[in-house]
Design a protein that fits this description.
This protein is of the alpha/beta class. It has 15 helices and 19 strands.
């Protein structure tokens, strides 16, 4: 009988979470590089380049690929001939491993899990508890699949129950465009079909734990309906033209995964869950011979990528910028930001709006007139870092606050990721403001442009506190200009037409 020691199990969980925080799997790197080489959209190609460069920097520096280091999801297949040597339950051991990984002094990971989700939403401080799914199987080993899923992609999970005669492809093609770009494409779509509603969702999540192999599948040919569906959806989703970061382009997904399960004759449950460009997951086995030994990737696995020339980008001095100057910016244009900007996410926005609604002044140092606010919750800094990985969060969560801030504070612009909703775009145009995006999945690269950081308001919010960054050549793309034109509407529409062979009338 195999004996699994408590410390071996805890150490394996902790090591795996640290590992996937800074190592992309080689299959993802190779698939993304191939997509990068074939991409014709300059904006999408540059976004892919930033993700690839960021990935190599993280592998070298052992720092998180994305500032959102996720909620931990664990799938266990426990052999019935396994005996545990320890005093804690399986979930207690998993949470001990999560705690160890996220509080690691050399590479602290951002704690994003909150307790009392419908009430106080208090951060647990160590990213516990994990979400654990356990299955008892024949054998004397434990198979462990572990993932760290960021909120940007998890929030785009979708579920439906179709009629048995309904078309799954049609539903997916209607659903994917509604996800926007908050899930940070290019990534992977997981599709679960059958069983019951909760089973379909689990199948979709499990499907994302497997390596990218769509091109190998195309070469050997499909052998069942699920594989046929994968190939069909891969081609049709990419034909939507959404592209990297939603900027428009040839590649939206690097793979489509499908798992199915027998279902009721009257039902067709279908779940869709995307994996973002961080795509953090790993599989390993414990057999009683100590903790898992995870393979260390070779730096040769990462391609040598050169970022777009900064000479072609417009440098912007945030400290002297005027609204008149910002009106010249065009959707899709690359800017390099220099100077001071403020940070703020959901919790900080709520506090600011509450003060404005009560007629109270904003906190000392929070003067938004003519300034930019960056939607970010960075990882804690280590060693000589000014700030840890500091990539953007999904901007649509701040849409409901946007008009009030623009109206009452004189805010000039915002920086985040993904699209803005119609009301926010209308407000941006009405106030002559602008919205910029940084590349989701390039958090460590972005942090290299931050020269100083200090907390100026709401320190009790932790990573959501308002900080002032001084940045130098921080790369961003104009997503919504001062007239309300959005690259997330214009770009995908143009590239969908190009892919379909329809002439594009204007650029």
């Amino acid at each position: 009988m195999t004996v699994i020691r408590e410390e071996d199990f805890i150490a394996s969980i902790a090591d795996a979470l640290q590992y996937i925080s800074y190592y992309h799997s080689p299959d993802f790197i190779h698939a993304l590089h191939d997509a990068y080489q074939h991409e014709k959209s300059p904006a999408a190609r540059d976004a892919m380049a930033q993700i690839l460069v960021n990935s190599r920097l993280c592998a070298e520096g052992h720092r998180p690929i994305c500032q959102d280091t996720g909620i931990v999801v664990v799938f266990l297949r426990v052999g019935m001939d396994v005996r545990w040597a320890g005093t804690q339950s399986v979930e207690e051991m998993i949470n001990a491993g999560v705690r160890r990984a996220y509080l690691d002094a050399d590479n602290p990971l951002r704690a994003s899990v909150v307790n009392d989700p419908a009430g106080t939403r208090t951060n647990t401080g160590d990213n516990t508890p994990a979400v654990v799914h356990t299955e008892l199987v024949a054998g004397n080993r434990i198979d462990i699949s572990i993932a760290a899923k960021g909120g940007g992609s998890e929030n785009k999970a979708r579920f439906t129950v179709l009629n048995p005669s309904d078309d799954i492809v049609e539903w997916v093609l209607k659903t994917v465009p509604t996800l926007g770009a908050g899930w940070c494409p290019p990534g992977i779509l997981g599709i679960g079909i059958g069983g019951t509603p909760e089973k379909a969702m689990l199948l979709a999540k499990q499907s994302l734990m497997t390596p990218i192999d769509i091109q190998a599948l195309r070469q050997r040919g499909p052998q069942n309906s699920a594989e046929e569906l994968r190939l069909t959806l891969f081609d049709k989703v990419n034909a939507l033209g959404i592209g990297a970061q939603g900027l428009g382009g040839l590649t939206t997904v690097l793979d489509v995964k499908v798992l199915d399960y027998p279902t009721h004759a009257a039902s067709q449950p279908v779940a869709l869950i995307p994996n973002c460009a961080a795509t953090r997951h790993i599989h390993f086995t414990l057999d009683g011979n100590g903790p898992a030994q995870l393979p260390v990737p070779r730096l040769e696995d990462w391609p040598d990528i050169t970022l777009a020339s900064q000479d072609k980008a417009r440098r912007v001095d945030l400290d002297s910028l005027t609204p008149e100057q910002a009106r010249d910016w065009q959707p899709g244009e690359t800017l390099l930001l220099c100077g001071r900007l403020l940070t703020g996410r959901d919790a900080a926005h709520k506090k600011l709006i509450d003060r404005l609604d009560r007629g109270e002044p904003l906190p000392e140092g929070v003067n938004l007139r003519g300034r930019f606010i960056y939607y970010v919750g960075p990882v804690d800094a280590v060693r000589d870092e000014v700030v840890g990985p500091a990539g953007p969060t999904t901007a649509t969560r701040m849409d409901k606050f946007t008009d009030t801030l623009l109206e009452k504070t004189g805010l000039l612009g915002m920086i985040g990721k993904a699209e803005r909703g119609p009301a926010a775009i209308e407000s941006i145009a009405r106030h002559g403001a602008v919205y910029l995006i940084a590349t989701g999945g390039a958090a460590y690269l972005v942090s290299k442009a931050i020269r100083s950081s200090k907390i100026i308001a709401f320190p009790e919010l932790g990573m959501e506190a308002i900080q002032e960054f001084v940045v130098e050549d921080m790369p961003v793309t104009v997503a919504v200009d001062s007239h309300g034109e959005s690259i997330h509407e214009k770009g995908p529409a143009q590239w969908q037409a190009r892919i379909a062979g329809i002439p594009v009338v204007s650029e």
